[in-house]
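Exercise 4. Each item below gives a protein and its sequence. For each, produce the structure-token representation.

Item: Cyanate hydratase isoform X2 (Coffea arabica).
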Amino acid sequence: MAEQSKKLSIAAELQAVKHKSGKTYGQIAEETGLTNVYVAQLFKRQAQLKPDTVPKLRASLPELPEELIQEMMRPPLRLNEAVMHFGESIKEIINEEFGDGIMSAIDFYCSVDKIKGVDGKERVVVTFDGKYLPHSEQKSEHMMSRLTLQGN
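Answer:
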């Protein structure tokens, strides 16, 4: 969560610099040779600023602090794209295979591995290995707080 919070904070700082400049994504795109969507992604920390583009961005937004430029050059956090895209389907399959429940993030192992695909290109393998926890039906007769209150 700290990484996500930091990303949001940096994105807010970047948005403030852009807003103060009065420029649109389109104007910055024209001045840097990027597309307007890629510029928006840069300012949301969803894309990485490449070294060759730094001088153009500095010329377009001279008030952009060096520390923010350095942050923009770091690879962004993008795994959430795959998780958001496939998450609901994965959850539905878990429900089909196991019943109504969740994969625990407490009794959980995760690994990231690099392999060669059949085409010889590098591929990323993310493994989520979590304990299945079934949801329980919430019957008031099983609520200890109610049972304790009734006993008084």
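Check: The beta strands are 101-116, 122-134.
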